[in-house]
Amino acid sequence: MTTRSADLNSASTSHRDAIDRLRAQWAVTRPELDTSPAATIGRLLRVAKHVTSLSDARLAEFGISRGEFDVLSAVRRAPAPPTPTELAKDLLASNASITKRLVLLEKSQLAVRIRSASDGRVVTVSLTPAGVALIDRALPAQLGVEAALIDVLGENERDQFESTLRRLLRECENRP
What we know:
The protein has helices at 6-10, 18-29, 36-59, 66-77, 84-91, 95-107, 129-150, 155-173; strands spanning 111-115, 123-127. By secondary structure, it is mainly alpha-helical. A two-stranded antiparallel sheet has the order 1-2.
């Protein structure tokens, strides 16, 4: 048994999740590998997928996806109208995905792209009044989804979890 593989056996069967099952399979297939990083990273990725799915379901009531919500939110909270490139950087998204979302938001008359009068190469994004109204209604609903998920954690657990995630995020952001 490799280091850290003992924790595979420590979780009672009733408390095992998909990552425990994945690691147990790898322990049989490749017992020499330490799969402990998957215990953290795999769970982060699975939680993110579940949150996106739950968000999409809730935000469908507003006629938007999580990706469109993220764009609307970023534009709404920006101190000045951002460029699509700034949105891509802020949201960790590709320029193509931002363009796709902007096209959908423009078709829904929630956002507009405005070309600079002084430099035709510069385009900024602004919300329409309908876009502002929609994000102002959708944000509390989305925060409700997130609150319901983290309510399983006590205040101390949540504080520790946020601190740990902050450290991991800083490490990711500092890598090339």
